[in-house]
Amino acid sequence: LYVAYRRQGRLAEAEGVLRDGLAVASRPTTFAKLMARDLLARGDLQQALAVMALHDPAIGEDPEFHALRGSLLLQAADFAAAAEVYGSLVAFDASNGPWRAGLGISQEQLGDREAAEQNFKAALEAGGLAPSVENYVRQRLPGGSAGNGD
Description:
With about 150 residues, the chain is mainly α. It contains 9 helices and no strands.
C-alpha cells in the first residue's frame, strides 16, 4: 500500500501507512527505515534521526538499519555517535567496505587520523564502495593512493 500511494504521489497517505506500521508491527525497523528515508528526502534530517532513535534492533537482526543510522549521524555531524554505530557494524562484519569507510570518516572527523587511515585502507581492500566514497577515501590516504606503500 505504501508503494502504491508513493507511485500515485499520495505522500501523506504513504506516510500514514508507515506510521501505522510503526505502531503495530512486531518488527518495525522496515517501516522506520522507509520513514527515515522519506524524511531525509524532504530535508528533515533531525526527524529522520528521531524515528531511527525509537528503534534499536540487534546488529545481526538488521545491519542495514544501523548502516542507515550511521549515515544519518554522519550527515548530522554527530561523529562520535556515528563512530559508535560504524564500530559496531565493523565488529559484526569487518569485511564490509562501506562500513569501514563510514568508521574511517567518523574517526577522521574526531581527530584519530591513524585509525581513520587503517579503516580507509581496509575499505578499499574490501570494496563495494560507491565511486564518490571510493574517491574520497583514496584522497584521504597519504599520496592519494590506496596506501600500498607509496
